[in-house]
């Protein structure tokens, strides 16, 4: 059980963005998906979530196909971010939680709990566009997990953030995993993956070139002449 991707391929016309990708993420694991710009991380996530039809292959979560749309079981932090700039933070988070079947009173409690946790309780009544990029990213993370999904997919959750905000997001994500969630996140940076994950894959131009435990992957770096841009 858990997340199983088997031979997933995505072609855009003649271009193969993801080529015959397979991976297994056990329930309760934190899984890192490492790759440079254009490696195919977002395309893979969109296939996993059923937002993009794969050209070949299958994806299952606990043995069933995934439909992200309005599913309470799945959470997603998209790379292109998806907040409504003019909507107030609490209003927006409660609305998104409701779409995923959480009752309003519980959603409100969760919003306040998370805003407290990120030390920004006073943001509840602010419009999203009034917040800094780092604070918008906290709100985006809350939006992805407020409804308590069992599978959480995070596309570059730490990109462009300062170290303090990265630390806050990491600790929130780790706590969420401890509550039982399975988490997959993408990154350009080995240090983030190494710190948080059990297993990982490295994607290069659409192909998995290395996968396994962090320790095995690190041991293989030398042998495989891995060319990953770390920034
Ligand atoms: P980044 O970190 O830059 O987001 P990524 O690893 O997420 O990179 P993808 O966004 O999945 O990479 O893109 C993989 C490749 O597929 C890129 O070459 C991209 O230009 C191409 N691609 C993605 N979406 C489309 C599309 N709709 N049509 C054509 N090509 C696409």
TrEMBL record:
Which key words tag this protein in UniProt?
A: ATP-binding, Nucleotide-binding, Transport
Q: Does the keyword Transport apply?
A: yes
Among the GO molecular function terms of this UniProt record, one is: ATP binding
Which residues are in the ABC transporter domain? Answer: 3-230
Q: Which domain of life is it from?
A: Bacteria
Family under the similarity heading: Belongs to the ABC transporter superfamily.
Q: What is this protein called?
A: ABC-2 type transport system ATP-binding protein
UniProt source species: Planococcus koreensis
Show which stretch of the intact protein is covered: 1 to 231 of 299
């Amino acid at each position: 059980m858990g997340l199983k991707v088997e031979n997933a391929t995505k072609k855009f016309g003649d271009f193969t963005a993801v080529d015959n990708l397979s991976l297994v993420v056990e329930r309760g694991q934190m899984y890192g998906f490492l790759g440079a710009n254009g490696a195919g991380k977002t395309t893979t996530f969109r296939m996993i979530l059923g937002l993009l039809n794969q050209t070949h292959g299958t994806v299952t979560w606990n043995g069933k196909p995934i439909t992200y749309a309005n599913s309470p079981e799945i959470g997603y932090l998209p790379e292109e971010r998806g907040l409504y700039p003019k909507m107030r933070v609490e209003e927006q988070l409660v609305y998104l939680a409701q779409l995923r079947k959480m009752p309003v009173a519980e959603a409100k409690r969760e919003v306040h709990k998370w805003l407290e946790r990120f030390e920004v309780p006073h943001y509840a009544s602010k419009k999203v566009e009034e917040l800094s990029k780092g604070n918008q990213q906290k709100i985006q993370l809350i939006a992805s997990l407020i409804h308590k999904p069992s599978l959480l997919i995070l596309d570059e959750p730490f990109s462009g953030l300062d170290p303090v905000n990265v630390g806050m997001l990491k600790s929130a994500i780790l706590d969420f995993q401890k509550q039982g969630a399975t988490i997959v996140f993408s990154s350009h940076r080995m240090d983030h993956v190494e710190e948080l994950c059990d297993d990982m894959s490295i994607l290069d131009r659409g192909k998995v070139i290395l996968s396994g435990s962090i320790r095995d992957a690190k041991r293989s770096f030398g042998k495989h002449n891995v060319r990953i841009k770390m920034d």
